[in-house]
From TrEMBL:
Name of the featured protein: Cell cycle control protein 50A isoform X4
A Gene Ontology cellular-component term: endoplasmic reticulum
Organism: Spodoptera frugiperda
Family from the record: Belongs to the CDC50/LEM3 family.
Keyword Membrane: yes
Amino acid sequence: MCKEKLVTPQVCSCFLPVDVEELMKPPVTLFYELESYADIISKYANSRDDKQLAGELITTSSSCHNYTYANTTEGKKLIAPCGALADAMFNDTFSMQINNTYLIGIRTGLLSEEDKKPYRNPPGDLNTVFQKYAKPINWENSPTMLDEDHPENNGFQNEAFIAWMMTDLYRKPVMRINHTGYYEQGLPPDKYMIRVRYAYPASRYSGRRKIIVSSLREWTNNVLLSFGIISLVLGLAIVAGTFYLRRRELVS
């Protein structure tokens, strides 16, 4: 049971036990799912600029509404990516470990090429290009720092960002296990732990979060099929401005 307190604006980390009873064949992938994701999308889905997401940073669209510009120490700047949907991007993070040793997680290769096609970075050095723009108001980091381990997985082409912007994808991929060495044949039966770093504000979403550990991903007509699933459901209760994080474990 996770009982660590989270007092705004701090974050809370929680460790969840995962019992793998038989070999999970590669690729083993972690997903998250927000129980009330449809409620978030109904508020923010149309607040975006698809031309900007395709690499045309200077937007002339009014579709980003109040999330078009931001005041910075350098004056008023255009936000990239603009819009309420990008601003609301889910930012809890997950990792997996065994015996206090973290498994290597890869945050690329999670989506099909067709899914990634509409999202293109502007030409040039990303750090230089994005310096002229403001990051989304509620983001912790710049779009150029979404994946420090994989420089190509940043900006508008970051796969976690693309998955968030895909409003018809309710189960979002987080990472896949690096299947080398001991894990080459898959995830062996054992007792693992998933570390959840809670950072997503309850003002945006106070419902339950679900973590799914899945093996044997297959893409069929852009529909993700998963076999061998372990599902963890996380509950979030709010008491007098303090977060108490609790989880309930479901294994199927």
